[in-house]
Model the fold of this input.
Amino acid sequence: MNPYQNALTQLKCAQKILNFDDNIFRILSEPKRILEVAIPVKMDDGSIKVFKGFRSQFNDARGPFKGGIRFHPRVSRDEVKALSMWMTWKCAILDLPLGGSKGGVVVDPKKLSSRELEELSRGYIRAIYKYLGQDQDVPAPDVYTNAEIMAWMLDEYEKLIGHHEPAMITGKPLSLGGSRGRDIATALGAYYIITETVKRKKIIPKNTRVIIQGAGNAGSNLAILLSKDGFKIIAMADSKGGVLNPKGLNVKNLLARKEKNGTVLDFEGAKNIKSNKFLEIPCDILVPAALENVITRKNARKIKTKFIFEVANGPVVPEADSILFKRKIEVVPDILTNAGGVTVSYFEQVQGAQNYYWEEKEVFQKLEKKMKEAYLAVLSLAEKYKTDMRTGALILALLRVIEAMKKEAGSKNFKTNLYKKKLELKIPFN
Ligand code: GLU
Done:
């Protein structure tokens, strides 16, 4: 259940279909650079604690590295490697002129005071700032990081370089050059993907039961968007457990309660559900919106749903993918479903670099167009190669990334069998 091994297994699977040679596979298996740093922080009690941080810069053939920073006790070298590989695919699928990276610090931020958290965020930037920048590597929020943390990081970076550079980080507060709509962009992107699926499959929202694992930024905003359209959100979970009401939860009240009590548990009119049983609740749409590796060989047969939309990164492991594919459960992969976040991050970077900011309507229209195009391109490749949507998405990403690598290196250096057999290189919408 190592996410990096999972990412490699997915890559291998796409290689079998695309038939690109092992040299390319080897290049695409490892990050171009991985930084491992120690960040000392003076704690409120006067002691010094040293936190471990990583930044994995996976591939930048298509543009500067791009990807979030996660603060979580389970962060590891292999986790950031996998996440940075997935960022590379995600940016390529959305046709953003960006590569992929990811950072992380091994910490439980809930146990830090606000001052300690700020120290840690600034210390992380001091440790790696030489490798960041709008033309080099552009961080953003991820699990347990937010706009406030991005603001500290930007400030630290600008102090070090001695001038403004708002496009070096995204997901910032609006007052520091953030983009309108970035706060709900991951959820909104997933909502557009779900809406396209609903149209394609002629699904009626009010007859559709949805369960969402994760009540963070993406999970809670998606619950609000879907419930406005009449979908029945019957269950939601956070890190402490879940709640179920088969008639549908009042999402607004539930989230207000979560805000106040720190958990969704014990919600009026709903039954508490243990975390390990949550994903097995019968439903029509299942949305894992928390962490990786939650749908495995062990529970894939017990899942009772028609669609899985991966809002988290890496929630379904490869073994589960093949079980679900055989069971005809459609898994719409993370590298497509949750790409709304990085897409608006890209818009934020463009706006910051130009020092010209767009209205919210413009951001949403552009996001909707990008998400729909990517969805249709992935779908057509999955249908063409008779595979699941994850492999379809990977094929699209690889065609674009390999093409850029080929151009970058010059055909002379890359002529050794890029493809073992001739490929149809026609990419939809290119
Ligand atoms: N952390 C988000 C992701 O995994 C957003 C990354 C970004 O905006 O750069 O896609």
The pocket of glutamic acid is lined by residues 66-68, 140, 142, 170, 313, 338, 341-342, 345 (CB under 6 Å).
